[in-house]
Amino acid sequence: MSSFDLRYENYLSAFEAYLSAYADKLVTRPAILGESMKYSLQNGGKRVRPVLALAVAETLELPKEEILPFALALEMIHAYSLVHDDLPAMDNDDFRRGKPSNHKAFGEANAILAGDGLLNEAYALCFNESMKGEKYALAAKFLNECAGVYGMIAGQSADMQFSQSGKEVTEEELAYIYEHKTGKLLLAPVVIAGILSGNKYYLSLERFGKLLGKLFQMTDDILDVTGNFDELGKSVGKDEEENKLTCVRLYGLEGAKIRADMCAADCHAVLEGVEGDTSFLHDLVDFVRTRSK
Predict the structure, then answer these.
(1) Helix (H, G, I), strand (E, B) or coil at 47
(2) How far apart are CA 239 and CA 242, in angstroms?
(3) 96: closest CA among 288, 232, 243?
(4) Domain that holds residue 169
(5) Closest by alpha carbon to 77, among 69, 89, 66?
(6) Which of 13, 64, 176, 205 is deepest in the core (most CB within 10 A)?
(7) How confident is the model at residue 236 (pLDDT cuts 50, 70, 90)?
(8) How far is residue 262's CA from residue 205's CA, in Å, rounded to a whole number?
(9) How far is CA 91 from CA 32, 155, 164, 278, in A?
(10) How far is 104 from 121, CA to CA, in rounded Å?
(11) What is the pLDDT of residues 54-81, one digit of tens each?
């Protein structure tokens, strides 16, 4: 196992233990609400966002106990967004990470409520953390901004509007969707770790988070063309089928790959301005760029 794989596994294990402790206490009436929430929250995945939060925290010498509640809240928000994204009224996908989507396992109404439950529990965690002091409240506020109507939700809305409009592809619209739909929830773990560390290297970390979010979505677009269901655990070829605005549609497959490589290079360059052990973050950039699932 490489040093990157070992550190990734260590971050992942720390997060999964924290998540498991939370899930053990999640008992609802009716029981199906909690079951459907945990079905999607504990459905594995790369956990890039909490791993990223823990990695940046370690680079900034921030104790993991400080970042874990926000990492969990962030993963809850991510999970809720996927539950709703898979619904027939949205992207209409029957599978997520190789398993039936939440609405296929529990029905559409329960899936909507599961997503609502995950979002509200995320903010309950943020409220609890905010009671500790100003920097925690600022971190919670930033997460809210990244997830809300000026963040991820705005990106989702723009993505849907474009796919239904039949308009010509423009770089400006693509950049907006990238920055908001995917980018905001990858910016959040980086900046929140910075806020909790007293805003160390704030501008560099903000730039890095934005670039990494862009790189992640570019790779997603490429994988929708080049990937397969067995590795991705979800349907492929849906972007073209649903008229999605993607970098592959705008630049072609080879052009998209070149731009993704350039974006990865920019990520590495920004990290050079951050003191501390950034070796894992450099490796994470390469992992995001070369992933197959």
Answers:
(1) coil
(2) 5
(3) 232
(4) 3-290
(5) 69
(6) 205
(7) low
(8) 18
(9) 24, 14, 12, 36
(10) 23
(11) 999 999 999 999 999 999 999 999 999 9
